[in-house]
């Protein structure tokens, strides 16, 4: 459980790692975030995560200071040093240090090993509650460090005994704060395709569902979500997790649905043998 | 020109100041920003800045760890240590350190003395060029650390030989990246009142203009801006600065207008005697 941080070429203890206060991630919110986990000591879907990391860097116009092979070596060193079969890895790439709080000559890259904060096992049966929030993320297709709305809403989420927030805007839902949303209508699996971050577990789930269900990637109205047979969310740490309450509305049967369970079993099988 | 940073109770050299990488400002973009300058060694409009700082903290739900009187003492110490009559002071308040990258027990407050980066004197005559960008800030009324769009657009601003970016959405303009916008139509001074951060220099300018011009705080369409007699921007470091180009459009006479000059003279007079 000793975690470490790679910072611009060096690996040290995560507790000691620091950045100077002129970092543009801190001063200007100018930073990229990515996050994945290992199963059996191996990074899950590394190629897909790397692809997304590079895409986010390009869209944020942050120069990427590390090649894929080198990054993989760092990740494997961090996993080994953690002493854990399963750990999480966080990438943070910022605009770097700046003398005038705007311009910078080189980015700062942090790669951090962390504990995984798993979902409580009973939530895979009962599902989670989310609160609805009228909002769509700025640059939704980019995984930036901008989670301020989720942070601001912490008190509301706790007060409602909920686990997360569901973003919706102009009658359409998009995503939770850090995960994607799917619904089942009969045998059709539907998930939004715009105004979202295209999660790696979303992609994994779509691949697993193929051949089993009819699949639609398209806008989902809030009403459609409320009337869906089953609703679930996907993320690196949640895998396939039922959503059974939105504010005071009960979704579907109020517990995990049969088809959600089927997909959860498929993904559990996949990661077991990763 | 030696600058310093107050960090949770201690003052040290700004070059040495750092935060641990578990800071939520860095990891989650969860941070407040405020900024003011001194004239003749005295913080300009301190009461108004403090009011805004407290308001931003409240809206971001960040607990404010310092009282006004104590903060003023820190600011005066930083000014004295800088050895400069005129310097800038930056407040950064973040969500604090977090073990799970979400929850935190106490915020981190940084108060930093900095050099002022003044506008080039000739720009008060020629005015500046801005590029138009279809966007409205998220939580515009809060001065957060979220400047990622401005950072992403740096290359475009430079390529266009412009100084800044003008945000507009659905036909209405709002603000530049870090400053407010005013236009003159005849003897009427107009400035947007929604989707903006209400700047302290905006407030100062409105107070100075009273009695001299008819004043309207209301939405301004993009077309209205392009057809205005005079356009200018206001900020702590810019004071009253003409805008004379938006992309390829020349605004007004293409140089500082008579009424803008009048307001610039008024504010220059005010700060001279501050």
From TrEMBL, chains A, B:
Coiled coil: none annotated. Transmembrane segments: none annotated. One of its GO terms (biological process) is carboxylic acid biosynthetic process. It catalyses: L-valine + 2-oxoglutarate = 3-methyl-2-oxobutanoate + L-glutamate; L-isoleucine + 2-oxoglutarate = (S)-3-methyl-2-oxopentanoate + L-glutamate; L-leucine + 2-oxoglutarate = 4-methyl-2-oxopentanoate + L-glutamate. InterPro entries: Aminotrans_IV (IPR001544), Aminotransferase-like (IPR036038), BCAT-like_C (IPR043132), BCAT-like_N (IPR043131), Class-IV_PLP-Dep_Aminotrnsfr (IPR050571). Its cofactor is pyridoxal 5'-phosphate. The keyword Membrane does not apply. GO terms for molecular function: branched-chain-amino-acid transaminase activity. Belongs to the class-IV pyridoxal-phosphate-dependent aminotransferase family. This is branched-chain-amino-acid transaminase. The lineage of its organism: Bacteria, Pseudomonadati, Bacteroidota, Cytophagia, Cytophagales.
């Amino acid at each position: 459980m000793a975690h470490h941080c790679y910072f611009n070429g060096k690996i040290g203890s995560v507790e000691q790692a620091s950045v100077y206060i002129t970092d543009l991630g801190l001063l200007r919110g100018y930073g990229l975030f990515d996050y994945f986990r290992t199963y059996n000591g191996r990074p899950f879907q590394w190629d897909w995560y790397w692809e997304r990391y590079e895409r986010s860097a390009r869209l944020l116009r942050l120069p990427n200071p590390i090649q894929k092979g080198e990054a993989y070596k760092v990740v494997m060193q961090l996993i080994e040093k953690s002493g854990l079969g399963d750990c999480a890895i966080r990438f943070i790439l910022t605009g770097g240090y700046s003398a005038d709080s705007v311009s910078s000559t080189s980015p700062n890259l942090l790669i951090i090993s962390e504990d995984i904060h798993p979902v409580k096992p009973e939530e895979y049966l009962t599902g989670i509650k989310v609160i609805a929030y009228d909002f769509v993320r700025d640059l939704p297709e980019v995984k930036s460090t901008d989670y301020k709305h989720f942070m601001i809403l912490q008190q509301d989420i706790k007060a409602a005994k909920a686990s997360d927030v569901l973003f919706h805007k102009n009658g359409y839902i998009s995503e939770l704060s850090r995960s994607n949303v799917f619904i089942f209508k009969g045998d059709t699996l539907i998930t939004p395709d715009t105004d979202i971050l295209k999660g790696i577990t979303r992609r994994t789930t779509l691949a697993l569902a193929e051949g089993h269900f009819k699949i639609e990637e398209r806008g989902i109205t809030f009403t459609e979500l409320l009337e869906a047979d089953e609703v679930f969310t996907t993320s690196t740490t949640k895998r396939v997790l039922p959503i059974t309450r939105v504010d005071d509305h009960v979704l579907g049967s109020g517990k995990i649905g049969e088809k959600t369970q089927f997909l959860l079993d498929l993904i559990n099988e996949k990661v077991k043998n990763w």
